[in-house]
Amino acid sequence: MSQGVRTRPAGSERVLSEAYDTALLDLDGVVYAGGNAIAHAVESLAAAREGGMHLAYVTNNALRTPDAVAAHLTELGIPAEASDVITSAQAVARLVAEEVPAGARVLVVGGDGLRVALREHGLVPVESADDGPAAVVQGYGGPELPWGRFAEACYAIARGVPWFASNTDLTIPGARGIAPGNGAAVQVVRIATGAEPRVAGKPLPPMHRETILRTGAERPLVVGDRLDTDIEGAFNGGVDSLLVLTGVTDGAQLLAAAPEHRPTYVDADLRGLLAGQPEVVEAGAGFRCGGWTATAGRTRLELEGDGAALDGLRALCAAAWTAAGEGVCELDGEKALARLGW
């Protein structure tokens, strides 16, 4: 096993909002769901901010502008300015600006978030492959994006125009359920052209670079609900992460996490910013956290004790991740998780 592979959640004697100068917060599943604030989010973020932590909101959704996102957060009771919001549209616009001449035309397949971000870099959004674009950039355009926009992208790419994508999330959560995300739309263009885009959003480095450039964070903590975007993005950026269990990740997925998907800390919700984190320690052949001890058997994970469910989950993570090493834990954790209510 390579040095540096995480085999257990970390502990912290210091409150996380004091140990880190900036929280890089995902939005959907962390701060809000279906447009409404998640329980404990408003008051937890207020307390972290009052304690001196800088709050930045980092989203792969390229549709809305930072102004629109900040206005939504403020309506929810979370005061925010446009400068507090970092989007994948901003990250991909920087990538494009580094590759094309100043003032170049860029064919946009997406919404206002992309157009605003491109103009910020002095680039000119256009609508047609016949407008002489120097690049094609694709981002989530909402459910009403016309099919013809994909055709324009394909025409330009077939002529040799470089293709960029804000992100490749296959799905996006909404009030009525899960809908196709930008990754599904990117796949349409990929199938038609055989080309591959340069991608900026989480979990790739351009998005992390954008957050650091815009926030000036020196000790950032990524806070997210998704292992494959938020936590992997923190891993790729070499910074610590907090997984909150208010979104898409469940206990079974966490136990089976590959090394790049293992968060530094695990907590129920954003109240975790306002607390320290308990140590997970070796206990004989297993691992103990709080009143729980977890061990890896031949075919399944075992859990003994009682206490806070989160402590049991942390102990199980240590047993599972240690058993898996650089791989993925395949031991059955269903019974152990059921004891914790997961």
Question: Would you give an account of this structure?
Answer:
By secondary structure, this protein is of the alpha/beta class. The protein is built from 12 helices and 19 strands. The protein has helices at residues 16-19, 41-50, 66-75, 88-97, 112-120, 148-158, 182-193, 205-215, 227-237, 251-255, 309-324, 334-339; strands spanning 22-25, 32-33, 36-37, 54-59, 85-87, 105-109, 124-126, 135-138, 163-165, 171-174, 177-180, 198-199, 220-224, 240-244, 265-267, 281-283, 286-289, 292-296, 301-305. The strands form 5 sheets. The protein has a 6-stranded parallel beta sheet.
Low-confidence stretches: none
**First-to-last CA distance:** 29 Å
Total DSSP helices: 12
Number of strands: 19
Task: Outline the biggest β-sheet.
Answer: 6 strands, parallel
Helix content: 25-40%
How are the strands of the largest sheet arranged?
5-4-1-13-14-15
> Into which percentage range does the β-strand content fall?
15-25%
* Average of pLDDT: 96
Gyration radius over CA: 21 Å
| Broad shape | globular
Overall SS class: alpha/beta
